[in-house]
Design a protein that fits this description.
Elements (H helix, E strand, L loop, with lengths): L12 H4 L9 E8 L8 E7 L5 H4 L4 H5 L2 H4 L3 H14 L23 E6 L4 H11 L7 H18 E4 L2 E4 L2 E4 L11 E11 L28 E2 H5 L13 H4 L7 H10 L6 E13 L2 E5 L14 H17 L10 H13 L15 H7 L4 E4 L2 E4 L3
Parallel strand pairs: 3-10
Antiparallel strand pairs: 1-2, 1-3, 4-5, 6-7, 7-9, 8-9, 9-10, 11-12
Helix pairs in contact: 5-6, 6-7, 11-12
């Protein structure tokens, strides 16, 4: 296996002037793979290193130079917005798949589905990714512009404000009113529970956006909140955080074996609950982008970060149950949406960690069962 070359992305002024660079996103390709000559092919998720994208990035300015913004719309404000988006995020258009993989020996530029994960939640990322990853051929121009307008309207309708930061109400929304076309963009937002530590979180391994954590009227990220902050949206909850049942329950103080397991598998004592958001943007049947908070202080193996849980557990569970017997299974971004949702909410279920003996599985499923319930309005704490 060839060793990928190291690329200093910050040394290139082009990336210093962009909100996102290839080093700040996680790109995964879902392909048919056959690891041995005598075995049948199987769907696998393969993480694509940023340095291997260099050949595709040679055409990074193609969309910016070819998109006829003035012909798309006569509205000057809309033209200005589109030009800014294509300047900042247009390079991602070169990440589009060139076709659908049909056999194991097909070239690497063909795949079943491409999944991009971004560990940051600025709403402008959704708009930029949708614009960049859409297919801008002549027949799709009007439909793509409609999808972008619908996305902007959807964000304005679903975004909420609280003392603790912005957030989305749970929703699922198609971004094109054309019901005759099944391959239309889709956006959804789902709140989910994740564990954390008391006080300040440990240092992050990387930061996607330097604006993270700063609140402003022009551009603010959706930060994760404690379960109390999620429920009491207009009140200060600092005095009550340490009185939560989850925080006070620390069985490792009296169980030495459990203490060793916690330190081995988690690296930190999970003593707090946060409510995060999973955003899922389905661009078309072959491209999907997900967004969540930056959890890079957690390990990737065991898969404690959301993207790792989706890749290592949720995807494999779906594949092993439904696609093992098929010679050429058709795995689309709509199916991968189910894997993403399972990765987000699955940490609350005993069956989620079947292949990894994590010590707090029963604790999440048992001790927290009386703390939260899922309803049509999202997550509602029963004890506060």
């Amino acid at each position: 296996m060839a060793i990928s070359e190291q690329v200093d992305w910050q040394a290139d002024a082009y990336w210093n002037n962009r909100r996102l660079s290839p080093a700040q996103i996680l790109v995964h390709d879902i392909r048919l793979e056959s690891w041995r000559s005598n075995t049948s092919s199987m769907l696998e998720i393969r993480e694509t290193l940023a340095s291997t994208l260099l050949p595709a990035l040679e055409s990074r300015d193609q969309l910016e130079s070819s998109l006829p913004v003035e012909k798309l719309t006569a509205n000057r404000n809309e033209q200005h917005q589109l030009k800014n988006l294509v300047q900042q995020y247009g390079w991602m258009n070169c990440l589009r798949s060139q076709g659908v993989q049909e056999a194991v020996d097909d070239p690497d530029n063909l795949r079943k589905c491409r999944w991009i994960h971004i560990s940051s939640k600025f709403t402008e990322y959704i708009q930029g990714c949708l614009l960049a990853l859409l297919d801008w051929n002549d027949t799709n121009m009007a439909a793509n512009l409609t999808s972008l307008r619908q996305l902007e309207y959807c964000i304005s309708q679903q975004e909420r404000f609280s003392k603790h930061g912005r957030y989305f109400a749970p929703f699922v929304q198609t971004l094109n009113p054309d019901t005759s076309n099944e391959d239309v963009p889709l956006l959804m937002s789902l709140p989910f529970l994740d564990w954390s530590v008391e006080g300040e979180i440990p240092p992050l391994r990387f930061q996607v956006d330097s604006r993270e954590g700063y609140q402003s009227s022009r551009s603010s990220s959706h930060v994760h909140r404690s379960i109390l902050q999620y429920f009491y949206r207009l009140e200060d909850t600092n005095d009550r955080e340490h009185h939560q049942v989850f925080t006070k329950h620390k069985p490792w103080y009296t169980d030495h074996e459990l203490d060793l397991k916690v330190r081995r598998w988690y690296g930190h004592y999970p003593s707090s609950l946060n409510v995060d958001e999973l955003w899922v943007l389905v661009v078309d049947s072959r491209h999907i982008v997900t967004f969540s908070s930056n959890q890079s202080w957690k390990s990737r193996w065991p898969p404690l970060q959301l993207a790792s849980r989706i890749m290592e557990i949720s995807f494999r569970g779906i594949r092993n149950n439904f696609f093992v017997s098929e010679d050429n299974p058709d795995y689309t971004s709509y199916l991968h949406t189910i894997a993403c949702l399972s990765g987000a909410v699955g940490i609350m279920h005993r069956s989620f960690w079947m292949d990894i003996p994590l010590c707090l599985t029963d604790r999440f499923a048992g001790y927290l069962g009386h703390l939260v319930c899922l309803s049509s309005n999202g997550l509602l704490p029963a004890l506060c």
